[in-house]
Amino acid sequence: MSPTLLLAEDDPYLRQDLERHFQRRGFTVTACETGTQALSAVQRGGFDLLLLDIMLPGVDGLRLLDELRRDQSVPVMLMSALGAEQDRISGFTRGADDYLPKPFSLAELDARVDALLRRVALDRRQAQASNDAGLTLDQNAQDLVHQGRSAGLTGSEYRLFATLRAHPGEALSKAFLYQTVLHRAFTSLDRGLDVHVCNLRRKLADIGAQHLQIQAVRGQGYILVDAQMS
User: Fold this and answer.
1) Does residue 152 share a domain with residue 110?
2) Is 58 strand, coil or helix?
C-alpha cells in the first residue's frame, strides 16, 4: 500500500511542488494550506506521516502538534524558515520526530522521510514481537509494559529503549544515540545519555524485565541484549 502523507504548507508554490514530488514517489497526499484545514484532516486520522510548516495561518504547526499528540503517535516532521534553536527545541519537546529547516533539498527531505517511515515500520514489527513475550511498547503513552506492569518511562527513556530494540545485536554509537534519542550532538563532557541508560536499567529491573540488558561496548556505544535468548 502507498504511504499516506498530510502536507500542511501555506506557500502555494512550495506546497504544489512537494505535493507533486511525493505523488511521483507513490505517496497518497492530502495537501492543506492552513492549520485549520490540517487539524480537520488529522482528526480523521489514517496518515503514515505528517509534514507540517510551523508558521501556518489559523492553527500554527506547534498547536497542531499539541492537538495531535493527545491521541495519535503518527510521526511528524516540522518545517520552518525560522531556523532558531528554540523552535527546534519546542518542536521536539512537544512530540515532533524531526525538524527540517528551510530551505532544504528534496534529496535531504526524502532521506529524512524514508528514515522516519523505516523507524515506524521497525517499531511496529518490534512491538508485535514484544507482545509475544509479554512485553509491549505503548507508543501513545511512550511507555513500556511488561506482564501488565508499566515502567513509567520518560520520553527520552522510551526513545532510547525503542531505538536499541529496533537494532537487535547491534552496538549503537553514542553519537548516533545522542542525535536520535536526545536530539543533540554528542560531546565528551555530556553525561546525559549515561544517566538515561542507568535510569532505564533500573526501571527494567523494577518491572521484572531485567533479562533485557543494556550493555556498554567499549569504544562503540550501547547494545540491547536479551539474556533469555543468549
Assistant:
1) no
2) coil
Q: What is the DSSP letter of 179?
A: I
pLDDT for 83 = 59
Let me know whether 20 and 84 are in one domain.
yes
140 within 8 A of 71, measured Cβ to Cβ: yes
- Structure confidence by residue, pLDDT tens digits, 104-115: 899 999 998 988
Domain CATH number, residue 80: 3.40.50.2300
**Domain containing residue 217: CATH number:** 1.10.10.10
Asked if the peptide bond before residue 75 counts as cis, ω within 30 degrees of 0, the response is no
Q: What is the pLDDT of residue 84?
A: 61
For residues 75 and 8, membership in a common domain is answered with yes
Residue of 123, 212, 193 lying closest to 163 (CA atoms): 123
Rounded distance between C-alpha atoms, residue 126 and residue 139, angstroms: 12
Instruction: Give the least confident one: 50-59, 145-154, 169-178.
Output: 169-178
pLDDT of residue 125: 58
Kindly give, in sequence order, each residue whose CB lies less than 8 Å from that of residue 56, ignoring residues fewer than 6 positions away: 8, 9, 10, 34, 35, 38, 64
The candidate with the shortest Cα–Cα distance to 113, out of 31, 21, 36, is: 21
Q: What value does the mean pLDDT take over residues 66-77? A: 84
Tracing cell 530494540 back to the chain, one arrives at 165
